[in-house]
Predict the structure.
Amino acid sequence: MPPTPQRDFGAPTIVIGAGPHGLAAAALLRRSGVPAVILERSDRVGASWTQRYDHLRLHTTPGASKLPGLSVPRQAGPWVSRDEYVRYLERYVVHHRLDVRVATPVQRIERAEPGRGTQWLVHSSDGPVPAGAVVVATGRCHTPNLPHWPGRSTFTGTLLHSAHYRSPALYRGQHVLVVGAGNSGTEIASVLAGAGAGRVRIAVRTPPNILPRSSARWHAVGRLTEALPLAWRDRTSLLTQRLAVPDLTSRGLPRPRAGLYTRNVREGVNPVLDHGFVDAVRSGRVEPVEAVQAFDGPDVLLADGTRLRPDTVIAATGYRPNLHDLVGSLGVLDEAGQPLAVGARTHPEAPRLYFAGYTNPLTGVLRQAGIEARAIAHAFRGETARSPLPAPRSATA
């Protein structure tokens, strides 16, 4: 059987994913003299952002949301909208003259055979692509995570993940249960309550750490206190919440027991920045309830035995990186499917295979994109000095 023809993109480095982390990595590699081609499964740059709900705004200020080499325009305002940020990513590609191949999904990465002059084979819709190095930047929010609640298939109402929620218009007059009290869940619940939903409840498993929206600037404080003991930072954060956020215990939302720093370390979650959620709970427009346990026909069963009968359930239950098909055979993932090495670090058995965008730091995910991109570019320079990247292979039949 003849070998599968290989596609030569004219660059020894492949970046998978045209989101902020992939674009930043490619830009800094290009600045370092390392040509890179970005392969993107969808038909445009920043596609995952375009698929988020219409009223989404960044939780970080423009200064903390920019990627290396290009500022977010001032006219975007202090809280950049979803569409404005997508336009920024498109300008970023033009500004840095990045080579992005859209509508080119990657199925898997495998080690190249020894002696073929390349490190990896990237299997894309265009066939296998040889690469001396690969940056995987498909992101930790790649695939919606919808829990397998008992009886889920029997639910006669509408059940959707927050990834498929767009605007509150469809839910006017409805009884809506939002599941999950993270940033997406609390924001969706408060917007629904203010846009005419008949009744809005939010199912809470663990009371969130809530900070005023203006506290997005606390990312700078987070950077300054990174070296301090975790317990000290937790106590300070809990005190800040007590001073800045009213006690909602009587409304069904007790104060959190764990500090936001501990929760970030243990669970990878960030605090909720208040977009009107606190006022919505205080006024009774959003009603916190216990966690969802199961479904039973038209009913939703809660942990305290309560039965609810909502028209719609919106599950703001997070995402999975879903890397198993892509790199699962390489031994570079932990039991939870997360990369064992991220940023500039690589797995000992997978040299020149980098992962960018798989952490959720309190200092800001978009700021982290630049940090990881700089570290990867620096690592490339060191690797190239010790062992130059192989030249691109010619296409073969």
Notes: The chain has a mean pLDDT of 90.
